[in-house]
Specification:
Radius of gyration: 26 Å
Structural class: alpha+beta
Largest sheet: 2 strands, antiparallel
Order of helices and strands: EEEHE
Strand content: 15-25%
Shape: rod-shaped
């Protein structure tokens, strides 16, 4: 196999999820107006919705994802692998310090 060269680039992906929750209207969410009528307190409504969003049964779905070059470029950590399109499927890429010197085999 011929020798190939590559440059390691650190990426980051931001995934945005969305979900819908039904917030029960309770006395705690209402505020009384000067004329005696009641209105929803939207700050309390949205706080209750965020709390419901923590429930494991909420149907979170991917709304969007965006891949960017990471602002901090650094060496590949020992516990991570890199994607190398030159390699066949299932073949692991080794960082330069993981490759053995043929004289040491």
């Amino acid at each position: 196999m011929s020798e190939t060269y590559s440059v390691l680039v650190h990426l980051q992906r931001t995934v945005v999820l969305d979900a819908y929750v039904s917030v029960p209207v309770t006395e705690e969410l209402l505020r009384q107006e000067a004329d005696g009528s009641h209105r929803l307190n939207t700050d309390k409504l949205f706080a209750a919705a965020r709390e419901l969003g923590n429930d494991r049964r909420v149907d979170w779905q991917v709304e969007s994802s965006d891949t960017q070059v990471h602002g901090i470029q650094k060496p590949l950590p020992e516990d991570r692998v890199t994607f190398n399109p030159f390699l066949a499927d299932g073949e692991a890429d080794e960082s330069p310090d993981q490759k053995q010197n043929p004289d040491q085999s």
